[in-house]
Design goal:
The complex is a heterodimer of chains A (163) and B (242).
Chain A lengths: L7 H23 L2 H17 L10 H23 L6 H7 L3 H11 L3 H12 L4 H8 L3 H19 L5
Helix pairs in contact in A: 1-2, 1-3, 1-6, 2-3, 3-7, 6-7, 6-8, 7-8
Chain B lengths: L4 H9 L9 H8 L10 H9 L9 E4 L11 H4 L9 E8 L2 E10 L10 E9 L11 E7 L10 E3 L7 E7 L4 E5 L5 E5 L10 E7 L13 E5 L5 E6 L7
Antiparallel strand pairs in B: 1-5, 2-3, 3-4, 4-5, 6-7, 7-10, 8-9, 8-11, 11-12
The chains are: A mainly alpha (163), B mainly beta (242).
Chain lengths: 163, 242
Amino acid sequence: MNKSGAPLGAFEAVYRARAADFFRFALAKTNDPELARDAVQDGFARAIRKRTDFRGTGLLEAWVARCVINAAHDLSRMAPLLRPEAEGVEAESVTNPDAEGSVVREAVQRLPQRQRDALFLRYYLDFDYRAIAEALEVEVGTVSATLHQARRSLRDALQEVPR
Amino acid sequence: MNARSVTDALDRLAPAQQFADDWTDVLARAGVEAKQPSRSGWRTRRWVLAAAIVAAIIVPVATATIAATNDWWFFRDHRLQPITEPVVIKTGVWDGKRWQLVAFRTSDDRYADPNAKEYCVGVQPYASPPSASTGGALGCGGFIASRGRGINLALSQSTEVPHWAAGPVVDSAAEVALSFRNGDVLRVPTYTAPESFGPVRFYAAPLPKAADPAAERPVKVVGIDKDGVVVACSPLDSSARC
């Protein structure tokens, strides 16, 4: 990798191939399609702006994922101030009377953030342990245990869902 | 709860769906100039001056059924011939009700003009699976950007989302202005579409609530570029002029 980091074309290739997957990932994190779209667009934009920081030894997709995660966090913090109408409980109940879906969301939200992110990276982006470790800036050896704990906690929580 | 429960839960949390990608927007947010061919003055003028008649108002296809398949509901009951995947172009909130604008391109074999393209657009409640048609409606119609009015319109009423207008417009339009009989003008932004759709953008607007149904129907719809120049226009009433 040269001193200017990954070439722009490499980011575009990742975007063209994986934007829809990143959107699902961001949607799971934000539970808001507009925020999720912004998180994907902003995340890729951040990755491009900081591309000179990208070390060629790492995985570009993991680097981008880290940027999307940060963008999603920033946007979620801003959302209640920017678009309070999007938080409307009434809209949710009118357009999507999905009680079980709400329970799923609550169960996922109860997971520690790192477990949640690891699970989402694994499931929506099909990341392997190394990519998850790079995206979350943790040791590869901790990823397996993190995912195991996340799945077990979520499975336990879902068993309580009335069917 | 079986072994697939976690997978099912994550599928439910963020269902697989099309994503209207926009690399140019990413570059703009990054502060990087996109490398793209510059639009010549001739082409810009052609949009403005060579506009001609397009197909009539899109015919709304109302629906009230609920399906149980994984396919988009509108492919089940109608003889549509899509040539692109349906894409969620935009989502938003009107009057506290979340909606999504879905569009796709359909076969244009029936048009004599080789430049004719046909699109279907629909607004439906957000977050319902593709198979769920409750509250949704779809309109399909012809669109000739190169020598047409460059804009088309579908209108629909629903109890699930506010009454709406939506449609395709030439890709030079940054905004669409809908004019109403009482003189009010509603301006809404246009939204990008996948490259496979061709040179087109889409818009969606909630219609004003009015006791008289005729009063909520726009009399003219206009596409406006980023410099404020009218690049598309369609009169919808005998009193309207473009």
